[in-house]
Amino acid sequence: MDNEKIRYLRPKEIEGLEIQEVINSNHSFPNHTHGVHSIGLMEAGGCYCRKPGSGSSFVRGGELALFNPGLVHSGVIKDSGTRISYRVFSFDNLLLGKALRDLAEKDGLPEFRSVVIRDTMVTASLTRLSLAAAGGNGRLALDTALARAAAVLLTRQCETTSRVPGTKEPVAVKRARDYLHENLSEKVSLEELSKVAGLSRYHLLRVFRETTGLPPHNYHLQVRIENAKRLLRHGTAFADTALLCGFSDQSHFGNTFRKYTGATPSQYTKI
């Protein structure tokens, strides 16, 4: 983490907006997903954004990576000597859903059409949003920057015909996912999960990965990390968060948290 700088912006005026600013990092991310719409703006350097079934996509300086909720991807740097700088904008689904209703008078959630793009108008609008979130210029300036960024995103890079999303998720997978969400602090076995789902272990592994893009243990770990982020944002102590999310100790929690977020718990909570 030498010379690496990380900052989070979470303006209290706008619930559901988080901006991560990273300078001079050599951290690589494993396969993971986001539960919300996320946009990575690469400012210097570049990394691979690998997506199952579509090979590897390289994100260069000045380019954007657009992630719909649930899209499996990673962020792999070419070699340990490479350093990158980027910002990640995370928009809560309710936030973009409201923007879609305001702009297009449609219910549901928008969907990004592409993953890696170069769009100077989107980049400029996101940069202005980041500056407004950091500048403390007042609610009106921040609301205006958010509205403009959402409008540019929706009109230029999204399908805005989305209705309230349905699902083709198998019932067995839903049972397994619900069980994992309900047992975040527990060490769930595959045998236990297969009984809940009503499938053999091998059948469950196949359909779970086909549906979610991740094997059950990776999915469970990621959900635990997302819960940890929520607890940390609400001021829960590091040691208590580690315990509540099923980590063996604070060190294990800290290492895993950084692996999936690129930040330590202390960096994540520092405003």
Structure description:
This protein is of the alpha+beta class. It has two domains: 5-159, Jelly Rolls (Sandwich), CATH 2.60.120.280; 171-269, Arc Repressor Mutant, subunit A. Helix content is 45%, strand content 21%. It has helices spanning 93-104, 120-135, 139-157, 171-182, 190-197, 201-212, 216-233, 238-244, 250-261, 265-269, and strands spanning 5-9, 17-25, 29-32, 37-44, 46-50, 56-60, 64-67, 73-75, 84-91, 111-112, 116-117, 158-159. The strands form four sheets. The protein has a six-stranded antiparallel β-sheet. It starts with a strand and ends with a helix.
The total count of helices amounts to 10
Domains, number? 2
Largest sheet: 6 strands, antiparallel
CATH domain class name of the largest domain: Mainly Beta
Q: What is the structural class?
A: alpha+beta
Instruction: Give the number of DSSP strands.
Output: 12
Name the shape in a single word. globular
* Cα end-to-end separation: 19 Å
Overall pLDDT confidence: 89
Q: Estimate percent helicity.
A: 40-55%
Q: Which sequence of strands runs across the widest sheet?
A: 1-2-9-4-7-11
Task: Give me the strand/helix succession.
Answer: EEEEEEEEEHEEHHEHHHHHHH
CATH architecture of the largest domain: Sandwich
Low-confidence stretches: none
Query: What percent of residues are in strands?
Result: 15-25%
CATH topology of the largest domain: Jelly Rolls
CATH superfamily of the largest domain: Regulatory protein AraC
Radius of gyration: 19 Å
